[in-house]
UniProtKB/TrEMBL annotation:
Recorded superkingdom: Bacteria
Protein name: Uncharacterized protein
Length: 155
């Protein structure tokens, strides 16, 4: 059985949630990221971009989970359809198709939430994405380059 890909920013997300709830800015932040996360003029208070980044990281985590679930259901459906007899599908295959449809819908919804969260974060942080680049692709690259990753997860 396949294992889900670990979320690379789990520790940072935990630290960021504590910061938004009233803690201190995560120590693993670069100076550029800390400038985005703190309210200008008041170092201890989180900016609105910090809460949007929390939303964005939760959405990214949901996209990874939905992609894994979709792949799992598709693999199981392929295994069972390989040996299915022609004609009316078995109740188990019908159930697997329903699970696949639900997994695809969850994947679409999580991707939409990611794009909405990315748009809100980019707007709050004042980041200007390059033209002719999808927001999802830009934010994935920005997250990989700018956010600290867990030391125990492969990059």
């Amino acid at each position: 059985m396949a294992t889900p890909k670990p979320f690379q920013h789990a520790a940072f997300l935990r630290d960021l949630e504590q910061f938004v709830a009233g803690g201190s800015c995560p120590a693993s932040c670069s100076p550029e990221l800390a400038a985005i996360l703190r309210t200008p003029g008041v170092d201890a208070r989180p900016s609105p971009a910090a809460s949007q980044l929390v939303r964005l990281l939760h959405a990214r985590k949901a996209v990874l989970k939905a992609a894994f679930d979709t792949g799992q259901v598709a693999d199981e459906l392929r295994r069972h359809q390989k040996f299915a007899k022609p004609g009316q599908p078995s109740p188990h295959i019908v159930q697997l198709r329903q699970q696949q449809a639900a997994a695809r819908q969850a994947s679409s919804q999580s991707r939409q939430l990611l794009i909405q969260s990315a748009a809100a974060f980019v707007r709050e942080a004042g980041i200007v994405p390059p033209a002719r680049l999808a927001l999802e692709a830009f934010i994935d690259g920005w997250m990989e380059a700018s956010l600290p990753q867990d030391p125990r997860t492969p990059g």
